[in-house]
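yo

u said u wanted the structure for the complex thing, so here. seqs first:
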Amino acid sequence: MKPFTIHKGKVAGIDRANIDTDQIIPKQFLKRIERTGFGKFLFYDWRYIDGEKPNPAFELNWPENEGATILVANENFGCGSSREHAPWALQDYGFQAIIAPSFADIFYNNCLKNGLLPIQLAKEDVEYLLRESKKADYELTISLEKQQVYDDHGFARAFAIDPYRKQLLLKGWDEIDLTFVYEPYIAEYERKHCPMP
Amino acid sequence: MKPRTIIDKIWENHVVYREDGKPDLLYIDLHLVHEVTSPQAFEGLRQKGRKVRRPDLTFATMDHNVPTVNRFVIADEVARNQIAALERNCREFSIPLADLYSEEQGIVHVIGPELGLTQPGKTIVCGDSHTSTHGAFGALAFGIGTSEVEHVLATQTLWQHKPKTLQIRIDGKLGEGVAAKDVILAIIGRYGVGVGTGYIIEFTGEVIRNMSMEERMTICNMSIEAGARAGLVSPDETTFAYLRGRKYTPKGEEFEKAVERWRALATDEGAEYDKTIEIDASTIAPMVTWGTNPSMSTSVDGTVPHPEEFASETEQKAVRRALEYMGLKPGTPITEIPVQHVFIGSCTNSRISDLREAAKIVKGKKVAKGVRALVVPGSQQVKKQAEEEGLAQIFIDAGFEWRDSGCSACLGMNPDIIPEGEHCASTSNRNFEGRQGKGARTHLVSPAMAAAAAIYGHFVDVRKLKKEPVH
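structre next:
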């Protein structure tokens, strides 16, 4: 996993609640067996008209959002299917962090496993960021170490993250390698509860 | 000892390692695998030279991509490759696979219970959000992403924080013609798609106790549509009777011993939940969704709402957008919405009792002109049983298409896609934009409501229809 330490980048906003993973990456792209290359299909049905022409009504196609690396959206972002293709697509498109008032549980987990940082902020802060994101070149800085999101004009908020996940993200560690350290405990559990046939 | 919920009991039984400041390391008893969310996980194992720790606790099938006619001829090359990849991976890592040639093939959440792989007290995961279905048996079952699939393959464990507990208690009696699907749609409609976020739901109360296992599966299946990764029901005699004699359940005396263990899992009298919601069953009517998430629903005798009826600006905006996508005008009676497609299937409602309920409405009638209706049994075993019971013939005589098993038009990864702008009465679980096809307009309903829509070409209150005996 790519480590996440500090990131400064342009902010794009999509002011919708309940953005589901079917919108983030539609089903026709789930047949690929690779982990990369999903960015061009991100928000496919919203982003393109007839699959090729960019839809000017869609936020990510607005000129002020070009090159954005931080996405702000409304409640319950990432609900629905467990497809990890959703964070893969967001990351492949260029996003490094998502800010919303709430996230769906499975999506939130999937982001953390890929070094895409999901940040939960209060609803009024998200509303503020959604308004600010309409300005071209509005940028935020995210420090995972300090658990802070801030801009250059005085906005600064702390965010919560599980300390264990934070360590993994900061170091970019492979979780499976870490779990192998606990192999004796797994073997012991299996001996008691779940022996090999 | 302090009274405990079934959630607490299963959790504690599976803690492999616990340390302050870390999630618990939980043991996984059953890992179900399908073709769509697993290839990158197996590739990850290969790149690092890792093995599957417990192939004996892993079981695979192919369901999302598979055609439901001519199932051996997969025209889409990318889909064919994905299915071939699963076959290769299962062979390489010695994982049992119910492939397209197997009589056991079907939707992963239909075959797990059917084969008796799903059992009370187990921790069950799958790279699919509808894994919550298995909670009907008193198992702790939840969907995971591909990175977690890889982690379970390699270690048979997951690092998890224990979610909070939410009791949804449904007491009283359901009215005639009101199905399990209506109960879960009503819950989501009243409390929203985020009510269960951060929670595991336990469904309790008289209504749940009186339900069959298949009805409980429908309820638990859509826990995720309420935001909860897992939903479950404490096991009881109904659970044990269903499991007796299944392929992978213990046999003879071992089964009786297992039942004793399973019985002890049920939530203790007086156990506390973090949150409780109570619902009076008599207030639930047959439901139809009119929008683009499962909370956007009303009873069949209702009307399409006006955006102004909603409190917040965010909601009003979402409703306006949903109505535009659905091509619906506020104030339109639900029974006046014309339907061009009917899909009876999916891990929510494709089991034998679902097909029986639909057949009772269909028997002796014809599908309305201009309606295309599909029945996709949840598994090859359900298909066989429905054929033996004569249900298949009832559907075929009425003009339904009778298909092989798979996920099919629930998500349209195979060729079963609903065309743009057309309305589909669907027994599946998600009415998201584009879910059944780009521009497709999905209305979630129970199997009986879907069957009635096929016959009349619009939604009909099934409480007013005569049901024919079918078996």
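Chain A has a mean pLDDT of 96. Chain A touches chain B through 53 residues (CB under 8 Å).
cya
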